[in-house]
């Protein structure tokens, strides 16, 4: 009955068109009434305490870094570098998209920011070259999914805080899985593009490639600085977010000189608005998380999954399927915040490595960004690329299936994640 009250109140509020943050508060209040614990003071304390977390400072700073990179020219130079390296081969613009997406993922950690930048820069080029616009848009949307996986990742930060798991270990463990997802997109694009009649850009000379690399060098140094700093213990993930924002601002304003005072004000306003939405959502979810713990919902979920507890792979498959279904109807951040306090006791009871689970959980939620009908990244690509939602959805299907295939391969063979992870953070 407790599970029914919580889930029923949440779904009813969402069905009424209430924003997800307020829907979470409504479900929390309903659960408080059911448990005879209603107290406005407790509600307010948990709401304020939910956002009062030092590690969560990484969220607004990474969002600020992403805004600066897109406006300050770092994203464009990354794309130009990828274009110079692989743009001349058949289907080269698709490989440029994947390569640039992986590099941008190591800069901003935001799927929406990466997808918007790639759509604006590459979709017109791919269309002019003769690629099917729906397929090109689908590839860009699927590439944007890599953003929350390859560190630095806002999703991993939120999961780390909600699950009390080392964010540094999550960052280092997600590097290889993110690259594997990029490899799956590469192979899928190569298969799909082989019959297309396209005109690739001319091959760049060695001098032009070196020039593109020189221009992109400052942008390419950022992920190196962050990952080496985390690995060597120079700074925490929260401090890494500040380093990313300050470094991006310095490069954009002093070296590339593409940011003016007027642009800087607009950048801060955009980052503040996005951060406010996410932080209020986190605060509202923490109210529900506290009530989930008080109502002992995790033990009830453990009881439901008891038949799978003796088989870690089967349990992970069941959890991944559940997250896939939730991801079709809910955005990434609320899914993380709602399911993490419910699933982590199950994971711990089954003896599954929480870092491994966290990476798999974020990968699944990331792919949920391109699964209709919600598909936040699909909406971004459709809006920026002036395409219909149906066309983008049709184009993304083969790439989405490839990503799910890689995800379940990592479920069946956990060492694909745990092996490289132990190498990076040992």
UniProtKB/TrEMBL annotation:
Q: Where are the transmembrane segments?
A: 42-66, 78-98, 104-124, 136-159, 171-194, 215-234, 240-257, 264-293, 313-330, 342-363, 396-417
Annotated membrane topology is: Multi-pass membrane protein
One cellular component term (GO) for this entry is:
plasma membrane
**Record keywords: Cell inner membrane included?**
yes
User: Could you cite one Gene Ontology molecular function of this protein?
Assistant: transmembrane transporter activity
Q: In the UniProt record, does the keyword Cell inner membrane occur? A: yes
Q: Pfam families recorded for this chain? A: DctM
Query: In its UniProt entry, what is this protein called?
Result: TRAP transporter large permease protein
Q: Which organism is the protein's source?
A: Comamonas antarctica
